[in-house]
Design a protein that fits this description.
The complex is a heterodimer of chains A (about 250) and B (about 100). With about 250 residues, chain A is an all-alpha fold. Chain A is built from 10 helices and no strands. The mean pLDDT of chain A is about 95. Chain B has 2 helices and 3 strands. Chain B has a domain of about 60 residues: Phenylacetic acid degradation B (Ubiquitin-like (UB roll), Roll), CATH 3.10.20. The chains are: A mainly alpha (about 250), B alpha+beta (about 100).
Chain lengths: ~250, ~100
Amino acid sequence: MFEFLVRLGDDRLVIGHRMAEWCGHGPILEEDIALANIALDYTGQASALLALAGDMEGKGRSDDALAYFRDETQFRNALITELPIGDFGFTIVRQFLFDCHSVLLWEALAACGHATLAGIAAKAIKEDTYHLRHSSEWMRKLGDGTAESHARVQASLDTLWRYTGELFEHDAVDDAVAALGIVVPHDTRAARWRSLVDGVLREATLVVPASPGPMVTGGRRGRHTEHLGHMLAEMQIVARSHPGASW
Amino acid sequence: MTDSQWPLWEVFTQGDHGEPFEHAGSVHAVDGEQAMQNARDVYARRGEAIHLWVVPAAAIVASAPSDAGPFFDPGNDKPYRHPQFYKAPKGVKVF
């Protein structure tokens, strides 16, 4: 259960931090605020999940302890969440692919047998439904926009596609939580994810890459890209320089 | 210099059921959906509203400063246009 929650929490902590890197750099003021809102939503979800993970672990680790005092190899986020933000189009495509996944995941968890987790899911699904509306609209605008915006988001989609398989991997951790009444049917979720994604891609005049290459994976076992370490260094330095400080 | 910004939309928020929509501010957006999303993110992200209206600023007809004299000044000395001088008929509940 701890491992399961840390995976969920780390996905959102890392993608939330990446999104927050846009703060002050958004293409227009309104979008800058939107990106920061979404970043905070994901960080808030991470906080709730990691706090619950800490409780379940029973070693007195808080959400902050888990977020700021673990090293790269102890992070369990999917690799798609840790890639650098790239241009605005890249961020939007990553967000869109992840939002689709996240909405469906919360849908399953809102009905799960663990009351606290179901509560977190019920709140998060509203947030992510909006995130998906936001990223879907940008997919349409950029994909079906100018030649340049289309080319950029298509290239981002080509790059990111290889990182999507990891979001639907099933392993012993899933089996373990299934015994606790937490069932996440990855197969059917992957199929629903694909039809959600395809619907928006069609409207955005984008296509799934024909030969994307093998899926990239490893984050769930702590094997990350070169990018996560740099991100964590920046994210964790304040907390590690002033342990226990509050503000 | 021409304005390179996206079109302007005026945002109205309703704080609670039955309350009037009030002007909250404005956003730039290329269409209604984007204006609605931007309005949500800029003016309703802290639980300020339960409903939103977005209106193209160009669709609003506004009175001009030069209208102020003929439009509003004549109302300043005509208190009899308020209804408090009328006696309510019997049987009518007075609020």
